[in-house]
Design goal:
Number of strands: 10
Strand order of the largest sheet: 6-5-4-3-2-1-7-8
Structural class: alpha/beta
Largest sheet: 8 strands, mixed
Radius of gyration: 19 Å
Helix content: 25-40%
Strand content: 5-15%
């Protein structure tokens, strides 16, 4: 007998989702059946919370479509409900805060402080440049962030497309590399990236263009060597993440006529071992409005989980139902299962 609530779970789609022709041509469920796999949740050890779509940048590869023009913000009631879930469920050890630039949510520091008090491991998806740019709407300074992170022992996970200026600026905008380097130096100055301090600084690498990332271990060695040689920078780990064929990146691929070529590349590189380690098996994603999803990518496609015919939210959070749910898959999932795999923690195989 099947576990969970398949009869209550549906796909919600809007203009951001893959169209039906894409789902037919690149059917992830067919590939699972061909490999005799049924990927079900194992646990929920991480609550990944997207607190805003506001960002000081508008990167080409951003699957969130975040920018300085976005206004969506998680309100205090929803933030506090997320904290209540963390307090109630000891199995959920990690709080992974993302955006947009999550630091631009007015309740961001409250969320961090309270989760740390509970003894949760707090990770922040920090874009580096927000420290220097501040809030693009209010002009509020964010120069205190390195000290704030160090004080609360937050794990900082930062996007850095490459260790050279040209490729980083091509993906993230002119001047992004220089600002990123300055911000990393500030993090290093308070102890981040230095093994004996326990303050963890990890970088995320996305390929510039329609390519699969190179081997994570080799790239990490290159990044460490070049960044230390040129700037004296140190960090802990490099995570390689495949660019997901959704939203802004998908639109870019279609504009240049490269979408089908990229999808074919992902499908042909399907790795059953990588599929076993996909993050949706141990994580739940929460949108700025409190809606619950299998992962951050499903969130951006509005593929929300449902219960009793309505979208599930943090206000009707049910751990047992969620850990026994059926995960919603789509053509974009080939991005997480190609090659060595891709997750918010880098390679999966």
């Amino acid at each position: 007998m099947e576990r969970g609530m398949p009869e209550a779970q549906t796909l919600r789609q809007d203009n951001n989702t893959s169209d039906s022709s894409d789902e037919t041509r690149y059917d992830f469920y067919v590939t699972l059946r061909e490999h005799g796999q049924e990927l079900r949740p194992v646990t929920i050890e991480s609550l990944q919370v997207n607190v805003t779509k506001l960002c000081n940048q508008a990167c080409l590869h951003c699957h969130v479509d975040a920018s300085p023009r976005r206004t969506e913000q998680m309100d205090l009631e929803t933030v506090n409900r997320c904290l209540e879930i963390l307090s109630t469920h000891g199995q959920i050890r990690n709080l992974d805060i993302t955006g947009g630039a999550p630091e631009l949510n007015p309740h961001f520091e409250h969320l961090v402080k309270e989760a740390v008090k509970m003894g949760k491991h707090v990770m922040v998806r920090h874009n580096l440049t927000v420290t220097l740019d501040g809030n693009p709407v209010t002009g509020e300074s964010k120069s205190h962030l390195p000290e704030f992170y160090a004080e609360h022992g937050v794990e900082v996970i930062s996007s850095l497309p490459y260790y050279q200026e040209y490729f980083t600026d091509k993906q993230r905008g002119k001047g992004a590399f220089e600002k990123s380097i300055k911000s990393i130096m500030l993090l290093n100055s308070v102890g981040y990236g230095i093994d004996e301090t326990g303050l963890v600084l990890n970088f995320v690498y996305n390929p510039v263009g329609a390519f699969l990332p190179a081997a994570q271990k080799n790239l990490e060695a290159d990044f460490k060597r070049e960044l230390h040689k040129k700037y004296g920078i140190v960090f802990n780990n490099l995570y390689t993440i495949t660019n997901m064929p959704i939203n802004r990146f998908k639109q870019q691929l279609k504009r240049i006529g490269a979408y089908d070529e990229y999808m074919t590349k992902l499908v042909n590189a399907y790795n059953p071992a990588a599929a076993e380690g996909v993050m949706c098996r141990s994580l739940i994603s929460v949108g700025y409005d409190g809606s619950i999803y299998d992962c951050d990518f499903n969130q951006m496609l509005n593929l929300s989980l449902t219960g009793n015919g309505a979208p599930m939210t943090v206000f009707d959070f049910d751990y047992e139902k969620l850990v026994n749910r059926k995960i919603i898959f789509g053509s974009h999932c080939f991005g997480c299962t190609a090659g060595s795999g891709s997750s918010c923690g880098g390679e999966t195989a």
